[in-house]
Amino acid sequence: MNQILTVLAVLFTFPVTAQDPEKFSKEINEEGIALYHSEMTSWNGTDIFIEHYKNRENIGGYFSYLDEGIPKCIFFSKSQKVIGTISFPANYNPKDAKIDLMERNFTQQETEYFTIRQNALKRLKNDTIFKIYKGTNLNIVPLIRNKIKKVYVLTATSAGNTVIFGNDYLITFDKKDQVKNVEKLHNGMIVQKISDEKTGHTISGMHSHVIKNWQAITPTDICTLMLYQKFTSWESYITVSKKFVSIWNPNNKLMIMKTEDFKGMTEDIFKNKRDKPQTDKTYK
After folding, report:
1. What number of CA atoms fall less than 13 Å from residue 208's CA on the CB side?
2. Into how many domains does the chain fold?
3. Is residue 280 part of a domain?
4. What does pTM read for this prediction?
5. How far is CA 250 from CA 135, 163, 175, 228, in A?
6. I want to staple 219 with a disulfide (CB 3.0 to 4.6 A). Which of 15, 32, 166, 227 is the partner?
7. Whole-number Cα distances in Å, 112 to 68, 143, 184, 204, 220
8. Mean pLDDT of the 72-98 span
């Protein structure tokens, strides 16, 4: 692990052009951050709404979105009326959230989010591609960016000391908001412990990607890393595939390199480290 961190420290000093030869790196990172904002809004919004809204049987669901830069979590009834709007400042501090429990109709923007969410939910219930593992549930995250409508499905758990990657999906839509395609982003579910009995608190993590269309780090990976950073304090995270090595750090810096280039650079780094003369040390 110390060798991995040494490599990371060196790589993060390289120019961006050397770090990120693939044009999709920026888009993946931005998509992951957008997912994070949506999920963070939902995490906090759900806690606040449940605390203040007592008619639980009336709740039909929820979704989050940005309304002119303001993160909002919308709760709707089974009769498809908005029954709660939780708005947050940029820091997502629950103490500063605005709570509106007035019943109303969806806005036009909310209707678009609601429509793809419901169409995704219908597909989720009827498509065997989706799996639910014991002790987990699936979160539906609608996202509209640059007029492109998507729904990501992430696996969540309430278990402590655990971060889950994988068992995630991307649903895309046609111009009529009907499901066009459903695909897996990982081949399975990856469970990583925040603290290990033998080694103690982990400082980094790694998993591999084998699906042909998702060789680089996924937006869902980035979203998960950002959501759990306050619990893990991981210094970095790596995904590896035949084509790419992706390296993420908590400052939202993302590098995507061709695997062959990464191997060549690490070999050179370790070779130089071995060849460098060592100074004498005095131990007391």
Report:
1. 5
2. 1
3. no
4. 0.86
5. 28, 15, 36, 10
6. 32
7. 15, 10, 24, 38, 22
8. 94
